[in-house]
Design goal:
With 132 residues, the chain is an alpha/beta fold. Helices cover 54% and strands 14% of the residues. It contains 6 helices and 3 strands.
Length: 132
Amino acid sequence: MVYRRTERVEARLKDNRRRILDAARALVAEHGFRETPIALVASLAYVAVGSDPRAALDEGAHHVLRYYGQLWTEPGNLIHHGPASKIAEEVAAYEDAVDVLVLFPQIPRLDQVEQLAEHVLPAYRTEAVAAH
């Protein structure tokens, strides 16, 4: 059976995650990294770029299944898939929730990395990177 989160549960989880991150950032701001047990929050986003979302998902799911053997949810819930512009929008949602986001291409081809580099990464935290 596939577990699906309701919108209410998802909203509560996001709120809890945001409160934990805010508390962790406040600790770092007050005490510095060396004295804070929680320094960074990271997340992993599986991505499969392609103009045909279904084909990108199918190919990405093939590689995820090859690695994990069995998934804990439907591939569409796990892999951000479709055109680079759609993935850029979805990845932007991570900005307030994590300090470090690792994008993990699921289709092992150079064009995947190029699409991410050219279209997804520039849309993610552009202002934050420019500030540093």
